[in-house]
Write a structure and sequence with these properties.
Helix 4 runs antiparallel to helix 7, helix 6 packs parallel to helix 8 and helix 8 crosses helix 10. By secondary structure, the protein is mainly α. It has one domain: Ferritin (Up-down Bundle), CATH 1.20.1260. It is globular and about 55 Å long. Helix content is about 60%, strand content about 5%. The longest helix is centred in the first third of the chain and has 29 residues. It contains 12 helices and 4 strands, in the order H-H-H-E-E-H-H-H-H-H-E-E-H-H-H-H.
Length: about 300
């Protein structure tokens, strides 16, 4: 079996339609909609009774579903892509066992997400799939893969699952609330595994740890979606501080993610103001380096 499977060769049937991250984020039904942000109309997208909230919740749930598929694929690749050993491109057997356990969790999440989509009235393929999560799982450095996926993107999953759980509570939907709470517990474990392995594998190499954490900052800022994911009251996706603490983040790290989100929001507002009108949204407006995790600047 080949190693490092490229994103273009992911197995999908005819129900799936892939699109760029910006196409996903500018879908008017989306919970995280950067076009609304560019027009200065950002509001919490998942609030009971708010117009558009049902479509926003369905869109976010479908995004969770496709993200869980890619998380399964990414964890599976990590089990296979790296040889056993202590070199920079090698991993301990125990790390592979953790990734295998994560595969089992992600497979269960896919099944739960399919059922939740049906419960919410959504068909597979009703919303497009962005492959950005799997792209982050293609890094050939296992430490960068762990920080980019298990700490940054799985950390984002903690925030999103908690947002959906609270939406289920607010709308009196016990099925949504219970399922999101169940998956949230697994995501905390996945992030904790990434946090633990980052510290263990870089215990005697502080420079490598610093490079990995710097890469994580880039991914965290990118996935603040121009300030839409953050710690402020009007953030559509709120940082789940307590659950992040359980996953191995300290207060300073969470504060830094919140600051990165505010910085991304200010940078976006400045670009909008410089043009003098709400512009057509481009990937560079969400983050100056865009959404290409394969670029050299992102990879290093």
């Amino acid at each position: 079996m080949r190693r490092s499977l490229p994103v273009a060769e992911l197995a999908r049937d005819g129900r799936f339609e892939q699109a760029s991250i910006m196409d996903r984020l500018t879908d008017p039904r989306a919970a995280v909609n950067v076009r609304k942000a560019s027009a200065g109309t950002r509001r919490p997208a998942l609030r009971a009774g708010q117009p558009g909230a049902p479509d926003a919740a369905r869109s976010l749930m479908h995004g969770i579903f496709t993200g869980e598929i890619q998380a399964l694929e990414g964890a599976g690749r990590t089990c296979w892509d790296f040889e056993l050993g202590t070199g920079e491109r090698q991993v301990p057997f125990a790390l592979k066992l953790d990734m295998a356990r994560q595969c089992w969790d992600e497979a269960r999440h896919v099944e739960i997400s399919v059922k939740l989509g049906e419960w919410m009235g959504t068909e597979i393929g009703e919303f497009a799939e962005s492959t950005i999560l799997y792209e982050a799982a293609c890094n050939d450095d296992p430490i960068l893969r762990l920080t980019g996926v298990n700490r940054a993107l799985e950390g984002l999953a903690i925030d999103i699952f908690n947002t959906m759980r609270e939406f289920g509570q607010a709308t009196g939907d016990p099925v949504l609330e219970f399922c999101e709470d169940w998956m949230l517990a697994d995501e905390v474990t996945h992030v904790k595994m990434g946090s633990d392995w980052l510290r263990r594998l870089t215990a005697h190499d502080p420079d490598r740890r610093d490079r990995a954490l710097e890469f994580q900052k880039v991914v965290d800022k990118l996935f603040s979606y121009g300030g839409i994911r953050g710690d402020d009251d009007d953030s559509p996706v709120r940082l789940a501080r307590r659950f992040r603490e359980l996953a191995g983040f300290d207060t300073a790290e969470i504060d830094e993610i919140a600051d990165l989100s505010r910085q991304a929001g200010r940078e976006r507002a400045e670009r909008v103001a410089a043009r003098g009108r709400p512009p057509a949204v481009r990937s560079a407006d969400v983050h100056p380096i865009g959404a290409d995790l394969h670029s050299e600047r992102m990879a290093r």
